[in-house]
TrEMBL record:
The keyword Magnesium does not apply. This is Pyridoxal phosphate-dependent aminotransferase. InterPro entries: DegT/StrS_aminotransferase, PyrdxlP-dep_Trfase, PyrdxlP-dep_Trfase_major, PyrdxlP-dep_Trfase_small. The lineage of its organism: Bacteria, Bacillati, Bacillota, Bacilli, Lactobacillales. The keyword Transferase applies. It comes from Enterococcus villorum. GO terms for biological process: polysaccharide biosynthetic process.
Amino acid sequence: MARRILLSPPDMTGIEQKYIQDAFNQNYIAPVGENIDQFEEELAKYTNSKYAVALSSGTAGLHLALIAIGVVADDLVFCSDFTFAASVNPIRYVGATPVLIDSEYDSWNMDPELLEKAILAYQSKGKQAKAVIVTHIYGNGANMSAILAIAKKYGLKVIEDACESLGTITKEGMTGTLGDIGVYSFNGNKIITTSGGGAVVTNNRNYANQIQYLSTQAKSKVPYYLHEEQGYNYRLSNVLAGIGRGQLQSLEDKIKRTEAIYQTYREMFAGIEGLAMIPTSPTDQRPNRWLSAFTHPTMNPFGLIEFLDSKNIESRALWNPLHKQPYLIQAQTDFFYQEDRKHRPVSEQLFQQGICLPSGSSLTELEQEYVLSCVKSYFMGR
C-alpha cells in the first residue's frame, strides 16, 4: 500500500470550510464569536443536554469539571485504570488523590463491584471520597446504571470521561449525559475533531456557568480587569468551533461507517482461533466504535505492531494501565482489582494481549481489505 493507513485520521467533509470562512469574514478569530455560540447550542441539542461549554481540550474539561463539583486538595476521586493518563492527571491538578479501579471483562470499562469495594475500604479507614470519573473506553459505554446507583448510595458526584464515546447510546441514554458532568474530546484522532478541543455538557446551570467563567481566566463582568479567583485559558477558538460545527453534522454518518468497519473485522477474523474483538458492552444500544480493537491470548502485540508498520499500516497497543505508570507508582497510587482471580488484573491482560487497528470513518474498503490480509498473514506465519 503506497499511502500509509492511519489509525484514526481526521475525516473532513468540506462543510467545515464554510464556518471557518465565516469566522474570517466576521474577523472573530479569538475565543469568542458565532461559531462558539452555535457549536455549544448544537452540541447541547445533539446530546439532549441543557448546557454545553466548548473548551480547548477534553483534559481541560475534566479539570474544570472537578473544580465545579467542589473537588479540592486531598479529596479522594475514583477513576478508571484502563485509560489514557489525561483521565487521571486533572485529579492531580487540583491536588486530589486518584484511586484506580480495574476493568470488567465484558466492556473493558470500570468494574462497578470493585468501585464499591474501594469505597468501603476507604470508609473503613474513616475516609469519604468526593467523586468518580468513569471513562467510556474506545467508544464502549460503561455500566452506568450500576455506577450511578453506587454513587448515589455513597454520596459521590459522577463525571463521565466520554472523550472517546461521543454518540454512544446506552440503555440509560447517551454517554456524557448520565452523570453530573460529561466531557468530550475533539482531538485530531477522535470520531469528530476541532483539530484540538473539547467540551463539557451538563444539566446543571451553576456547573455550566462556573466552567465557562473559569475557562476565560475567571474575569469578572465589570468594565475593568477584576479576577476574584484563579482562572484558566481553556476556551475554544471561534475558528476551531467552526470546524466542530461542520463535523457534528456528519457524526451520525461517521458512526455508521465505524460500525461497518468493526463488523467487517469481526466477521473476517472469525476463523482465527482465540482472537476476540472488543466486546460490545452489555449496556450499549449503539456504541460509536471509535476504535476497533482485539485481543489474542498468545499474541505479542508489539510484534504485530512492528509487522504492520513494515506494511505501512499504523496500529497501536491498548492502553498501558495507569497503575503501571512510573509517576503514579511513585505517588503510591492505590489500585483495586479482583485479587482472588488466578490471573493478572484485567487491565494488564488487555494491554499485554491487545491491539487497535485502523478504524477511522475515512478508511476505505480497499484499505481495510489490505489490513485484514496483513493481519491474517501475520497469524499464519507465526
